[in-house]
Amino acid sequence: MVPSRIQLLAVLAFGVAMLFIENQIQSLEESRAKLERAIARHELAEVEQRHSESTGREISPLSENDDMVVIYNRVPKTASTSFTNIAYDLCGKNHFHVLHINTTKNNPVMSLQDQVRFVRNVTSWREMNPGFFHGHVAYLDFSKYGVRRKPLYINVLRDPIERLVSYYYFLRFGDDYRPGLRRRKQGDKKTFDECVSSGGSDCAPEKLWLQIPFFCGHHSECWNAGSRWALEQAKHNLVNEYLLVGVTEELEDFIMILEVTLPRFFKGATELYRTGKKSHLRKTTEKKPPTKETKAKLQQSNIWKIENEFYEFALEQFQFVRAHAVREKDGELNALGQSFFYEKIYPKVN
């Protein structure tokens, strides 16, 4: 019995020793990693210092972004005014310009000559840089016009039916942003449910066709309601041409990611959205949620199916970006810090 107890104690002692050694090794590896990062930061600082001395100027994160241009080709009734008000509130503090693109009759499609003028303005109007351009304009591919540096596109999408319902009541009752302004359908008391039930034109499935063409752009096929080509082009542009596309239902997360990605424009935006008054100002008046029967009728249309597919595609992409940009802690989302660093920088500093 005695030898077996001694053997058991020896095994336990060996196990404890191995755990201790593993913990020490892990601690050493963490210390080594911290040392490598410190060395890498020092080497990078030395490289930047040499570059600064050779060019005769100080490297400034702000000055490098002073020619940046952001275009927000805002889709109507997606909380675009709420978001744009944040840019107006921040432009003086963060030292950038905000310009509203006001098209005749809010037409989102520009003539070819206006496309050329707009591209020339955005790319050569240095006095307005850094600039935040916003307006109800369809996506425009700047590379078609031979420019070397394209602007950064951002946008926000909304559930297609929710967006249409909001627009329907907005045309009739307006909102609390400019309550005295007379709207185009003012006086029409018909509810959205009654409109769908009677087959009205203002609530027809064709009215759902808006978010896809806004992302598809200035091709004729983009505006053919129900076009799957337009859907695929919109998806392509969303993934390849837009820096970030958020959703109305998660607007605060969209603003938070923008703040850490583009602090030149959006530093302080999250706190302003949470506590400011302007960002929550615009709400459609007299809006009545549609019934399940009304939604079901609209969802039978091919146009809704395609628009909803695009919305769900955008939502999935945004949630993917968010999962790699923020973490939840104590019930609140917090932006992640930098998770990469540079090492093995050659030639070595003397």
UniProtKB/TrEMBL annotation:
Coiled-coil portions: 18-50
Q: How does it sit in the membrane?
A: Single-pass type II membrane protein
Task: Tell me which domain of life the UniProt entry assigns to the organism this sequence originates from.
Answer: Eukaryota
Query: Can you list the GO cellular component terms from the UniProt entry?
Result: Golgi membrane
* SUPFAM superfamilies, A to Z: P-loop containing nucleoside triphosphate hydrolases
Name one matching Pfam family: Sulfotransfer_2
Task: Supply the InterPro entries for this chain.
Answer: Heparan_SO4_2-O-STrfase, P-loop_NTPase, Sulfotransferase
Where does the protein end up? Golgi apparatus membrane
Q: Which UniProt keywords apply?
A: Coiled coil, Disulfide bond, Glycoprotein, Golgi apparatus, Membrane, Signal-anchor, Transferase, Transmembrane, Transmembrane helix
The protein's GO terms of the molecular function aspect are: heparan sulfate 2-sulfotransferase activity
Q: Where are the transmembrane segments?
A: none
| Major localisation | Golgi
Q: Give the signal peptide range.
A: none
- Family designation: Belongs to the sulfotransferase 3 family.
**The protein, known as:** Heparan sulfate 2-O-sulfotransferase 1
Q: Which organism is it from?
A: Pleuronectes platessa
> What lineage does the source organism belong to?
Eukaryota, Metazoa, Chordata, Craniata, Vertebrata
